[in-house]
Structures
1.
Amino acid sequence: MAARRRCALGIALAILLAAWAAGTLGKEERGVVRLGGRKIEEGRMRLRGGAKVATNAEDIGNKMSTTEIWRTKRLVESLANAKGDGTSMISLLIKPGDQIHQAATLLQNEYGTASNIKSRVNRASVLQAITSCQTKLKLFKTIPPNGLCVYCGNVLDNGKDTHLTIAFEPPRPLKSGLYLCDNRFHTEALEELFEADNKFGYIVICGTGALFGCLNGKSREVLHSFDVDLPKKHGRGGQSAPRFNRIRLEKRHAFLARVAEAAISVFISNNLVNVKGIILSGPADLKNDLMDGDLLDQRLKKAVITVVDTAYGGLGGFDEAIDLSATLLSDLEVAQDQKIMNEIYTEIAKSSKMATSGVENVLSLMDSGAVCSIVVWERLLTWRMKFRDKSGEIVIRYGYREEAKDTKDMQLIESSEVLEYLANECDNNGVEVRIVSDQTLEGRQLKEGFGGIVALLRFPMDPDGPTNADVVSDDGDTDTPDIWD
């Protein structure tokens, strides 16, 4: 009789725990959580500072824009940095082609397994997380084209447990499924999805060495390089001149053979070329000799799409080769960034007031509808803060996150990262936003020379002036102040 009572009591407790988990879901899943220093608030379609959130497959089946991919990337970084108390954080990745009922069956089986967890607190947290995943899956009729990512569990927010449930479509198709219940969210499978599909290899050859590089989307990387000291061509030596020339040609041939061997180790993996195409570059005729001879592997020779002449070798020749091949690689994001930056440099050189830099200048002109396109560094740390002073007027200031707090004379109304503000407002203002990293030449120039943000304007306008008209001096001459001073 006592055993029956204990069994009945255990069943009743399990039912109560399940009901409690289901009851708390509705209150907590639409809450506000701060992950990695960023506030994430789940609404119907978007995460604040995160990715595009889905309520059904139709909402997220379209191609993502640059800002949406950036939102997803920031969200994945925040999820990777989130920590929980106990093993109640569920990572569920469903690859394209799978069915909703398969994932639902998996969660149902895991629910039965989690019911046997001995720890009462941990068991309740895991059951709550699984129930949240099941509820989120019910919002989808089919799996989106790129798959579906579901993360849910209790996240530590300033020492307090806050329940979080997020579902989003990755920027590219998932390669495999995943289900893990741990004390953190597993985002490793998503990191490689942010790499561009069109990956190109570069071989830069000159008389002082060779460089092997890779251009992947916006990122350029030096994979391998080595130096060499080839003898110069000369007409001295008398009767020994033919011997000197033969030695020079032998060393030249040995250098090209070494380049061909290094190219195999860099650009061939599993007997296949691991890049979409190869660009041969460099000064003089070494590159042509490599292409026309029989030293280069036939698989690599078939992958060569062009041969370009550069004025330099090494890293400078690598950057120059990318610029010269931009017309062939016009679909790459780096080529689009170069185009916008070149337009901005042209306007700066002409002093036409069709371009501006600096966070305050760019955002003030964007609010007035004068900005056409913006190029911004992806790690810009500036925050936009809206205050109300004692007279009731609204004051906008820009600074670091630590400055986003009430002061003696002003009350903080809202604050957000400038990048987040741009991502949310660019669509409303019809502004094209390009987010670049400092791994590219454009990103380094943007970071070091322009404070991390520049903009191309639709019409000439001075951000310090009341209108876009030129300022007329007392003598009748038109005075055009330079906004770059």
2.
Amino acid sequence: MRMRLMQRPQITTLALPRSQTWPSELLPPHQAPFHFLPDVYNFAKFMLATPQYLTADLSKDLDLLGVERRSMVAAKDELSIVYIDAAEEKLRHQIAKAAALESPLLVRTIDRTRKDYEDLQRRYAHNTSRSERVDVKPVGLHETPDAFLATQHLPFTNNQPSDSSLLVDSDLATQPNRFPQPTSNRSHRQRRNLNPPPPSTQTYYYYQAASGLPIFLHPLDIKILFSHYNGYASFPDEIIVRVESASEGTVNDDLRKRCKYLAHMPEGADVVFIEADLEGVVGQEGLKNFEGALKLRTARRKEKEKKDDRARARAEEKEKERVKLMSREECAVSDFMDHPPPTLETEEPSSRVPISQAISGAWGSRSFASALHSAPSVSRAQPSNRNATPEIGDEWDLDAAWHELEQRGGGRRRGKKLVVLGGGAGGRRR
């Protein structure tokens, strides 16, 4: 993975890859940059869009809506056509507003920014070519073989300083107060500084994916690079590493305290930290001092992978058991539908009366009112006819029913009255 060195001053939330344009006068840290400047579109959290860019972007959306409208017309979808027409009208209104933003002052500012960017590129190219020419040195005498110098008779030229000059310089160095400075007779008192302290010039350096995605280098890898280069400012502008593992996280207060260089990220944003193999960057010698930490990180990563594998295996086993249980239930339901159990024949209550209901009371299955309205011409029924069905027509009269009721209540405790209420011509008896 290719990663670039990000540079973010503490006084701003603007973080861009370190380059010839950042930091520079072209990109002030307290101003929003234009979108056409290098690396702004991919890495900046805020930027300024020109009216031409806004008009072009809105025109693309308008063209897409035109294509969609033609397809809806072919499908004769009147409702969708109404919504598309409303969206097109809104886009035309926004295009008109973007065109109104193009003032002479804004045009001059954009042209000046573009010109400054071109001048900066030319200066950077000129300085780069000059440094390359300076690095190419002619072959000097110190690079000439000794055998060749032995055959030449060159005059003795000593460019090194003599011992006396070294002594003078040492005397001047060891006697800094040789020439005393005039001192004032006034007694200087330390005054309290009423002005606010100057803003901090601290700058954070970290590596982020060259694509602009929130993928960052692991803190341990940053420590290794710091130990190798002896400073964050000495980091290379771009590195290519081999990714060994990746871990996801979310920006919160704890992460901001541990990784202060990510304090400009919004809270709740998703980030990814990669564990990289830096042997191609710092060499084997640069990793010797961190062998223990790297082995511990590798062991933790393997242990986490094992835990994830076990959890995945348990989840898969539970899913298999659930599928088997559902298949069994489906088979049982299908068998029940194919072979329903035999149904029992039920008798209608109007045709036959159960025996238990016929002998449950003094009047059998009939109520007191029905017995009261029965005909008095029916002879007294024998006890053997109590289980007869209504089709026979042998009913008890009221006296026989009352006699049987008295016989049944004869074994109860005395002093307790039985009140039987009834309606009709029979009146009420106690």
3.
Amino acid sequence: MKLIFVSILLCVALGSCTASISGPFIFWGTTGVKSVQPQALVDATAQELPLTQLFKEAKAIVVFVRNATTRLEGTKYPQFQNLVKSGPWNYLPQRNLATEPFGHNANIEVINLSGRCEEDDSEILSAYNEALETYGQGGVIGILASREEEPHFLAKREAATGEEESKSKKESESAAEETEENFVYVAEGNKAVLSLNGPLELRLSNDTLILKEHTKQITFDDQHGKGYGRLSITFMHSGEKCTLRFKFTLIRGSWTLRNVEVDYRDQKSVLVARGDEYTLPNAPLGFSYRCSSENVTFLNPVRNETLQSLLLSDFQVQPWLNGRTKFGEVYDCVGFVTAPILAGLLVVTLLLGILGIGISAMLSMHTPNRFESSRSSKQLTFTRYHKILNGSGMFVQITYVAIKPLALFTLAIELFLIHMLFVLIVLYAYVLWYY
């Protein structure tokens, strides 16, 4: 058993930092990790549901990301080996997960390992035990992964002389260094586009970068078969490069903007979009996403990192543009029915109700067709004696006619409706001013 575990650990090869974690993966901690099957045995969509359920049912998730390229050896990681073997665990040899844990669980901690065996071994054990003390036994999932490498492409080309190669290399470098200042970022070949009405704001621990100037070389890494794509934009700030790689996932015909990798001053961090599956920027394939009323914030889940957050405001984005020169149909973050519209509909409904009651009351009025004598009507007559200044007196006859209760009730309803109308008008004015 020990040899099998060591052989599995030897298979974990790790690369450089990119926008997301990659495999092979080792899961441990809960009984549910045994039910996840490798992607080679099942379809990617069939693996997404059990992974999503596993991430949501866990009380917390701790992701350990190794930065070194060396392979794991069981003899160099004895504490980690004992930790994994002490409970249920699973090994997934695939490069990518059908769905990532980010966005499915609120208690996620990402820990970057240094690459030194003894320090990493102690860090994994201490961090996982700390999570167990906080959330309890059997509810914390541990994931060991590596950072996803940039894809490498091999292509045949004709042999060229040394001068031609150096010339073409200089031309490509000069083209890559050419910069421009605008807020519309179109990938080469019109594969993807991101349009803003203002510059991006990258917030560091002690400063805020306003990203305006960028290079002309903007690329989109289309990994449609693997279910994701990356839009890479390189900015120039005070003579230093800052590269942003926006990652879009593609699931069941819809794309979602999940996270962005930031590469600045030899520091690389993955900033995760804040929100859930209903509030993250997403749209069906072939549609664009537009949002002008709300901001999208990408936060760093790693503690004590220099790169803190990225703010995306008033933007429109569409991956997989497929060579088109304009955006597709728009999915807007603002709903079709807003608070001012609801308030206006409520006021109009009440006004129409008052108008209907008034018209009905007017139609029910009729002129009298007969007149009753004073003898037939029931009247209360009181005779009072008043003394005049000259000493003479006179009789004053005062007649009280009984008032119908229905008239008083109708008057009360009218006063109440007028009061409600005034309140709704004030409320409507407040809503229009607030929004």
